[in-house]
Structure formats: C-alpha cells, structure tokens
Amino acid sequence: MRTLNILLIEDDMIEVMKLNRTISSLKLNHKIIEANNGEEALKILEQKDVLPDIILLDLNMPKINGIEFLGILKNDDTLKYIPTIILTTSNNQKDLLECYKIGVAGYVLKPLKYEDYVAKMEKLLAYWSINELIKA
Question: What is the 3-state secondary structure (H, E, C) of 17-57?
Fold first, then answer.
C-alpha cells in the first residue's frame, strides 16, 4: 500500500490528535499535514510544489467553512483534482448534497466511539492508498 500525504483541515485539536493516534495505532506511514482552518490550508496549497494526495476536510470551521473552501479549491485548475473527503459530524442532507454537487470524493460521518472511528478511517485510508492518484 502506498504512503499518502494527507492534508487534514480541522479546527478541533482533539480531532487532529485522534487521526494522528489512529494512524500510529494502525502502524500506517501516512504523512499528515495539519491546517487549523481553510485559510491556513489555502496557504499550504499555494506552494504547489508538494501537493497532498488527498484532503480530509471538516465542514464546520471558522473563517472559511468547508463548503466555501471546496468552492475555492474546485475553481483552481491544479487543486481541483485533489480528492477531497469530507470528515464531519453533520449528517445534514443539504450539506451532503451541496458537497457532492461541488465535487467531493467522499462524505464520511465521524463516529462518536473511538473504535468505530479507527475502523472507518482504516477503510478510508486503505481505499485511497490503492487508488491511482494524480501527481502534481
């Protein structure tokens, strides 16, 4: 399985720690690039020499929310091809529809129980690590 460069856009530090802990407990070598909000993520993505393989995006964030961020991402000729997976607690059908309309690669609800979260993330990361991904 391929090692992924993952851009995690998440303002909740507990969620960031949870993903890092999950990756280390599953003994995966994926590299996590952390951004606390959409603005920070856009600054990281502006340096187009090293683009992430996938983006994990929380919807409810300050400054630029997830849907606004997606709009900006999908309007960029280089960045629009990066598979973006929504990782959220919102099972709001309007959000779900909006995200798929904009062109997300997936919409995953964060389970409350840690074991369920680990199981879900293991499958998600396994899936993306066997995909053919665009290299910038």
Answer: HHHHHHHHHCCCCCEEEEECCHHHHHHHHHCCCCCCCEEEE
Asked if 37 contacts 63 with a C-beta cutoff of 8 angstroms, the reply is yes
C-alpha to C-alpha distance for 96 and 90, rounded to whole angstroms: 8
d(CA 5, CA 33): 7
Burial call 28-66: b when 16+ CB within 10 Å, e when fewer: bebeeebbbbbebbbeebeeeeebbbbbbbbbebeebbb
Average pLDDT for runs of 10 along the chain of length 136: 93 96 96 95 89 95 90 94 94 94 96 96 96 82
